[in-house]
Design goal:
Strands 4, 5, 6, 7, 8, 9 and 10 form a 7-stranded mixed β-sheet that branches. Strands 1-11 form a two-stranded antiparallel sheet. The chain has helices at residues 10-14, 25-35, 48-59, 97-105, 107-110, 127-134, 137-142, 160-170, 181-190, and strands at 2-6, 19-20, 23-24, 37-42, 64-69, 83-91, 94-95, 114-120, 145-153, 176-179, 193-197. A hairpin with a 2-residue loop joins strand 6 and strand 7 (94-95). The longest helix has 12 residues, at 48-59. With 199 residues, the chain is of the alpha/beta class. It is built from 9 helices and 11 strands.
């Protein structure tokens, strides 16, 4: 039998006088809440994907969350985590190679984890196509939460050629931020839902 429980609003619910075999819901779920561990693996070119990772970690208050920059990470131990979040951004039509390599190298382990995917990009008409191109189909089907967050053009962090390409392709001449913060909230809330078995 399965119970789907939102972790954040549990405080009042857990205190209700409902017992299973003489054990309250609060006591029964306590270990599950404490043991939930989340890892966010991301790659960022100008800082937007990193910003989203930090915001997600801040909002997931009921999980022990760690953040890993794939550009600096040599080896990843996924075994200690219950939930894995992978994030990247689109540049010249492609997600970072470090994200692709991470997904490919750890595919088997990722398919045995609770998984979430997010993508930062700015070409709204191509959002769905870019997301499909960014992550392997197996991981997209496995993910319990998938979000396209929007993105930013941060001219202060771009080199001359990057600025020239953005100006030509996107027709913008300065910094633009189009992060959809509601998508970050949605992902955090969706990842608070846990499945408890064996009650």
């Amino acid at each position: 039998m399965h119970f789907f429980v939102k972790v954040r609003p549990l405080n009042l619910f857990m205190r209700l006088p409902v017992f299973f075999g003489g054990v309250s819901l609060q006591q029964k779920f306590k270990k599950v809440i404490i043991q939930m561990k989340t890892a966010i693996f991301y790659s960022s070119s100008h800082g937007t994907t990193a910003k989203v990772a930090e915001l997600l970690a801040q909002k997931m208050t009921n999980s022990q969350t760690q953040i890993f920059n794939l550009k600096k990470l040599k080896n990843a131990d996924l075994t200690i985590f219950d939930t894995i979040i992978i994030g990247g951004s689109v540049h010249a039509g492609n997600i970072q190679s470090s994200v692709r390599k991470f997904c490919s190298k750890n595919m088997v382990e990722l398919l045995n984890k609770r998984l979430a995917l997010y993508l930062c990009c700015m070409n709204e008409p191509e959002f769905d196509v870019q997301f499909e191109h960014a992550f392997p189909e197996l991981l997209r089907k496995k993910a319990v939460s998938s979000k396209i967050i929007g993105g930013e053009f941060l001219f202060g962090k771009m080199n001359f050629f990057e600025k020239a390409i953005v100006k030509k392709v996107s027709k913008v001449n300065g910094t633009v931020s189009k992060i959809d913060y509601s998508k970050i909230d949605e992902m955090a809330k969706e990842l608070e839902v846990v499945t408890i078995s064996g009650i």
